[in-house]
Specification:
The longest helix is centred in the middle third of the chain and has 14 residues. The chain is globular, with a radius of gyration of 19 Å. By secondary structure, it is of the alpha/beta class. The protein is built from eleven helices and 16 strands. The strands form three sheets. Strands 3, 5, 6, 7, 8, 15 and 16 form a seven-stranded mixed β-sheet that branches. It has a six-stranded parallel β-sheet with strand order 11-10-9-12-13-14, with helices on both faces. Strands 2-1-4 form a three-stranded antiparallel β-sheet, with no helix packed on it. It has two domains: 175 residues, Quinone Oxidoreductase, Chain A, domain 1; 132 residues, Quinone Oxidoreductase, Chain A, domain 1.
């Protein structure tokens, strides 16, 4: 079968297509014939630490959707032919393995490309906004880089939860497009200069929850933009800035909560723990189209390099998908 592998160095990223054997599912795994896989910019960042030491080859692709081809000996609830989606390793391939506890049935009528946009991005968003962020109806949500895949999903889920959403982006066209998804306040900027505008838009209240998809360059400004007992989620660092000043006075006075969002160090059991609530609380919103994955462009699997280049160009709106 065909499978894409990635080599990361301190200065470069290389993709290579290989012919490798079809994997064999373990006792609690599914062998899935892939139909679509989602690209996530964090997978291509050395600073995210997802690929081991620089110079290490690794099968690439962290989420996708396809048809179950075989099931492990201990698997229940799935059978060959089921349409499934989930987080996985090596999704840019003809076949991949999914852990059964982390796998979900694709809702009826949902296209493969849309299904492949859900498992990683929307689960991360659910973690940020619901499980850790405790976002409530009527609160203010601020999203740095709102036109990214995670940013768009945060906007959509935030609106579904009844929040008011402020988003930053350097693109006026992208901000205008997000108005149709309910973006309440659009701030055109890529710089850490938005706190005053956030305070003005919220009548001095500030953001109750902040989603930082950009990185350390936004950290201090986000603290200035936050409300009393606000929460700050750091989910990305595409700016490459891994350290930031922490104003302890602001942290202390406002009683702020700062948390990270990553699966890097979590066990399989920890990753799977959120799946039942996600299926119960979020999938119905996707089925009734209250939430809808936004797909920017679909590439065939053999054009993975071109898809990666598009993601790196920062010209996307929503998700880039590989179709097998």
């Amino acid at each position: 079968m065909q499978s894409y592998w990635m080599l990361m160095t301190d200065t470069d990223t290389v993709l290579e297509r290989r012919d490798v054997p079809v994997p064999v599912p373990g006792p609690r795994q599914l062998l899935v014939r892939m139909h679509a896989a989602g690209l996530n910019r964090g997978e291509f960042l050395l600073t995210h630490g997802l690929h081991g030491a620089p110079g290490t080859w690794k099968a690439i692709g962290g989420e996708g959707a396809g048809e179950v081809a075989a099931v492990g000996a201990e698997v229940t609830g799935f059978r060959p032919g089921d349409r499934v989606m989930g987080r996985c390793a090596g999704a840019f391939a003809d076949y991949t393995l999914m852990e059964a506890p982390e796998t979900m049935i694709v809702p009826d009528g949902l296209a493969w490309e849309d299904a492949a946009s859900i498992p990683l991005v929307f689960l991360v968003t659910f973690d940020m906004l619901v499980l850790q962020g405790r976002l409530r109806a009527g609160e203010w949500l601020l999203v740095n880089g709102v036109s990214s895949g995670v940013g768009v999903a945060s906007l959509q889920l935030g609106k579904a939860l009844g929040a008011r959403v402020i988003g930053t982006s350097g693109s006026a066209a992208k901000l205008e497009a997000l108005a149709s998804l309910g973006l309440d306040v659009a701030l055109r900027t890529r710089a850490p200069d938005f706190a005053q505008a956030v305070m003005g838009a919220t009548d001095g209240h500030g953001a109750d929850l902040v989603v930082n998809t950009v990185g350390g360059s936004m950290f201090a400004e986000n603290l200035r933009a936050m409300a009393f007992e606000g929460r700050l989620a750091t989910v990305g660092h595409v700016d490459g800035v891994m350290h930031a000043d922490l104003d302890l006075g602001t942290l202390h006075a406002k009683r702020l909560t700062v948390f990270g969002v990553s699966n890097k160090l979590r066990t399989k059991e920890q990753r799977a723990a959120a799946i039942p609530r996600f299926v119960a609380e979020v999938l119905p919103l996707i089925e009734d189209q209250s939430l809808r994955p936004i797909v920017d462009r679909v590439f065939p699997l053999e054009e993975a390099e071109a898809a990666y280049a598009l993601v790196e160009s920062d010209a996307t709106f929503g998700k880039v998908i590989l179709s097998a």
